[in-house]
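ok trying again, last paste got cut off:
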Amino acid sequence: MQTTKFEELGIIEPILRAIVDMGFEEASPIQANAIPIMLSGKDIVGQAQTGTGKTAAFGIPLLQAIDPKNKHLQAVVLSPTRELAIQIADEIRKLATFLHGIKVLPIYGGQEISKQIRSLKAGTQIVIGTPGRVMDHMRRKTVKFDDVKLVVLDEADEMLNMGFREDIETILKDVPEERQTVLFSATMPKPIMDIAKTYQKEAEIIRVVKKELTVPKIEQYYYEVKPKNKEEVLCRLIDMYDPKLSLVFCNTKKQVDELVSVLQGRGYFAEGLHGDLKQQQRDRVMNSFRNGKTDILVATDVAARGIDVDDVEAVFNYDVPQDDEYYVHRIGRTGRAGRTGRAFTLVVGKEVYKLKDIQRYCKTKIIAQPIPSMNDVTAVKAEKILDRVNNIINSEDLTKMVEIIEARVNAEDYTTLDIAAAFLKMTMGEENEQIEEKESYMDYGDTGAEAGMVRLFINIGKKQNTRPGDILGAIAGETGMPGKLIGSIDMYDKYTFVEVPREYASDVIQVMKDAKIKGKSINIEPANKK
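nice, full thing came through this time. structure:
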């Protein structure tokens, strides 16, 4: 497989430093194709799905186009949801770590607009926003496009599905014609091509459509955790399942080094593998892992290429992979040669949405699991130790040991059971810290929805001049859930029923309880059975 280094793409040194800090080692196909074209100033139509690295593909050239001395707005990125706008802003800020004087601001509904206005007035060169909120600022004249030289439409098909076409066209008409326009979309329906034809000039078309990948037959689980608890949960899972050999994947070299240090400090035989290792070090680490001297290998995706060890019984995704394909490559390293394989993924906050994308892309089932309690871990560890004790009793001469135990019992005020329990505790070691455990999805019962969905009631309908598109746009925009996942919307005069996937229902109810639709506060709750 041909690879491209970021150093080959004409990227300036401060951004290259940030890329290294972020843990990226090679450019993805969309990055390798799009970055040089964008740097040349040409318009682009890019067909790329979520999980291909497209944010960096447009974010890097965008940053290089900004004049830090000019405090006026110079670039606008439109995204379908507030969650995506925040993600894009976060990544662009990381890429700009070593650039000085560049301000990035996400603007979206649901946040107090006065705060956004203050930030805009203070001087912001890059705005990432949902079309509706950008239009709101245009009406208030709090965004001025006079100096804008670059516009990016990210997930353009999703924005059209959510009914934003008119807003998008209004924004594009208001931006100076002498600009660079970049459009990314997972699909290329006619409306997308119409926008490209109308608002772009001789755009270069880039297609990076990810191939279908087959996921091996592996038991796959995920655990929702808090960042501070990731180390503890990983250790509990290792103790619980006690794999002969296991691979732990991190997204950055820094995280690999930190996690190896933690694991070794807790007494595990762990080694790290990443791109900074010299070949001699890499060979030593791999030989130790193959020979079983190292039980746990912690690695980045790029460094793990070419690892071919049949006895890997478990893969742990300490970080959710940055690319959907990485997930398949990671878990494919277990369950080989007819053996049983398990894959465990630790998910923090909104990463659960990314995992759902991976699940849909891979056409596989990743099952939510409760975090093992200390009682669970203790019971499993005790059972394994007692199995070993049973083997020793059946296969070895214990006469001398029995005499020693009898002598101690006769001399002290405790029983053989007390001694056995003390030995068991010594063997198992100390229990680790307690952690907050997240409850699994709520059971909403039968709400009259299709299988896998929850039907929700919203107290707003046609008489409030509300359309189904307003409901869809509000839910997708407020929660960050892809609009295409929202099911049927049944609207009546004074209320509406909408179906959402069961795994998103709690988030939708929680986030939407303080939301407004068409300026009206709403109440949202699980519906009664039809």
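cool. Residues 374-395 form the longest helix (22 residues). The longest strand covers residues 219-225.
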